[in-house]
């Protein structure tokens, strides 16, 4: 046995009076929407905002030799495992002078790793590396690198971390350098 269709009985549902009905007092009536004059200088909501030219490598004058490369902790560790000289391999990759940059957060992460990673710490303290100070709390390097790259589009990010690469790919105009197959 199927369900019976329940139809609404006539005049059971209350009828609604529209707010523009003549029977409603003048003060309670809904006002007709007033059309505003369009301002030609105002930003239109339907228009897609134009991206700055620094997002396109062809026009980005900030991103040129000598390249400033933000180095992540795991990039240094993987370069040691692959027996690569960081600065030379960066120059081989880009065919130009490279200035590796290390933030205070990355240095803090390497120092926290302890004695096992003392070679990485010695590489990070190399005088060829430029030291960048951090003004925020905490020593989480991934957030620090993403924040710095978002503010300044003049860096290339060197990392092997998949999660960090995924986050940086969402920021347009930021190149990523990584180690694969010992190169």
UniProtKB/TrEMBL annotation:
Coiled coil stretches, renumbered? none
Keywords of this entry: Nucleus, Ribosome biogenesis, rRNA processing
Quaternary structure?
Answer: Part of the small subunit (SSU) processome, composed of more than 70 proteins and the RNA chaperone small nucleolar RNA (snoRNA) U3.
Q: Which family does the record claim for this protein?
A: Belongs to the UTP23/FCF1 family. FCF1 subfamily.
Q: Can you say what this protein is called?
A: rRNA-processing protein FCF1 homolog
- Native species: Dicrurus megarhynchus
What lineage does UniProt assign to this protein's organism?
Eukaryota, Metazoa, Chordata, Craniata, Vertebrata
Which InterPro entries does this one have?
Fcf1/UTP23 (IPR006984), Fcf1_PIN (IPR037503), PIN-like_dom_sf (IPR029060), PIN_dom (IPR002716)
Q: Name one GO cellular component term.
A: small-subunit processome
- Residue ranges of the TM segments: none
Protein location:
Nucleus, Nucleolus
Q: What does this protein do?
A: Part of the small subunit (SSU) processome, first precursor of the small eukaryotic ribosomal subunit. During the assembly of the SSU processome in the nucleolus, many ribosome biogenesis factors, an RNA chaperone and ribosomal proteins associate with the nascent pre-rRNA and work in concert to generate RNA folding, modifications, rearrangements and cleavage as well as targeted degradation of pre-ribosomal RNA by the RNA exosome.
Keyword Repeat included in the entry's annotation = no
Cite the Pfam families for this sequence.
Answer: Fcf1
Specify where it is mainly localized.
nucleus
Cite the PIN domain residue spans from the record: 67-166
List, alphabetically, the SMART domains matched: PINc
Q: Which GO terms describe its biological process?
A: ribosomal small subunit biogenesis; rRNA processing
